[in-house]
Design goal:
Elements lengths: L2 E5 L2 E4 L4 E8 L8 E6 L5 E7 L5 E4 L7 E6 L4 E6 L8 E7 L11 E2 L3 E6 L1
Parallel strand pairs: 2-11
Antiparallel strand pairs: 1-3, 3-8, 4-5, 4-9, 5-6, 7-8, 9-10, 9-11
């Protein structure tokens, strides 16, 4: 079965960095798009970034542009989110997700359990 396991979250001061990882199994990782989402306290879950099967990035949430970078390693079945210059408003639970398609547009089918990121001011 499909399994997505996020790791790399934690508590950092503002201006710090974290790299989130999402290890995938149960499907052909190299053939599908992968996405990162987050849910900030009291807010709806929001899309952060997506990377297509061919490692083409689909863009970023405006609030994280220039600070976050998505990447994937198909040999390791892992997608990453490098987060630099973190701000307190980046505090959220971060989720990875996948959909049964090569490209980013459309419904997201499978989700990980999430990893907490806390940025202190």
């Amino acid at each position: 079965q499909v399994e997505l396991v996020e790791s790399g979250g934690g508590s950092v001061p503002a201006g710090g960095s974290l790299r989130l990882s999402c290890a995938a199994s149960g499907f052909t990782f190299s053939s599908v798009a992968m996405g990162w989402f987050r849910q900030r306290p009291g807010k709806e879950r929001e899309w952060v970034s997506c990377i297509e099967w061919n490692s083409q990035s689909w863009g970023y949430l405006d609030a994280v542009k220039g600070r976050f970078t998505i990447s994937r390693d198909n040999a390791k079945n892992t997608v990453y989110l490098q987060m630099n210059m973190l701000k307190p408003e980046d505090t959220a639970i971060y989720y990875c997700a996948t959909r049964d398609a090569k490209y980013c547009a459309g419904h997201w089918t499978y989700w990980g359990q999430g990893t907490q990121v806390t940025v202190s001011s």
